[in-house]
């Protein structure tokens, strides 16, 4: 009987793990099942483009993994039982239960409302494809002069505000941040950011705490109001509660606590990657939720798992950073150089060159997922004798 590997989630992290494992293990000795709610691979880093009205290419998962040995199952995960080693599925291709010998948890994150009243009822977001499509439809309904407020001054909010303002010049776009907009960027990058916002006509509200979202406005902590026929909530992300409901050790954020190889510290047959995992980077600082984190986490997990299954030396590497890339519409962008522990430096590339580099990086990330057997040569190894039987006590 094959060793059963189930990968939950086909974002950048989960999709990369599945493809990399297919290159590392013999398909007649392992069964790899990739479970995802959407039948397509979704470029999350481009969802602000989708929301603004642009069309993105479809990448059906079954086409991507054709001939690799990876089985794609379209369904939504509702529970994980780490004692029985099963996952419960619903919707898509039907409800059911799948058993695993090794689980790779990559269910990502969704929008965090931070308990602010009205977010769930009135705000839109760009955390998923369907949410982005709903926002797209709502923006198309607005008449000229309609007000759009992006709540959140991080990279997601910045990209969403710029994209919407550029694609819909007839709308009045604003952005509100609890602190400063782009305050984690260098001075040079912030100056360029605010110059672009001025050019696009985006109103900036800094040091603004939103306490309630209503259908046509938001209310701030000072009692003020900001008009918003559409509110786009980008003020943080939270992981799905499935892991916290299991016996897995999770952090206060609900993320699965993993070691340097992305393996659960409480259940060694479980690996976690992407936004759903809490791992340390340089200096012991937790890695941030980002595509730039998800992909190297996936490489680390896949190579470590394959090494353990085949009795080879487990690779050790520290995940670090080099860049922060920000799109400001289709013709402008910022490339911010950072240190390995994600601290900004004074090196910035902005303007059209920054936009081109950002596009190259995003396209490269999607290409690597869309060509799971081409990025690296296949070096498949046989399972070690002690790993040949499934249902191991630990890997």
Automatic annotation (TrEMBL):
Q: Recall the GO molecular function terms of this protein's record.
A: NAD(P)H dehydrogenase (quinone) activity
Q: What is an annotated GO biological process for this record, any one?
A: aerobic electron transport chain
A Pfam match? Pyr_redox_2
Q: Name any cofactors this protein relies on.
A: FAD
UniProt domain FAD/NAD(P)-binding: residue ranges: 4-302
Q: Supply the name of the protein.
A: Oxidoreductase
Q: Which family does it belong to?
A: Belongs to the NADH dehydrogenase family.
InterPro entries cross-referenced by the UniProt entry: FAD/NAD-bd_sf, FAD/NAD-binding_dom, NADH-Q_oxidoreductase
Q: Which domain of life is it from?
A: Bacteria
Entries under Gene3D superfamilies matching the protein: 3.50.50.100
Instruction: State the UniProt keywords alphabetically.
Output: FAD, Flavoprotein, Oxidoreductase
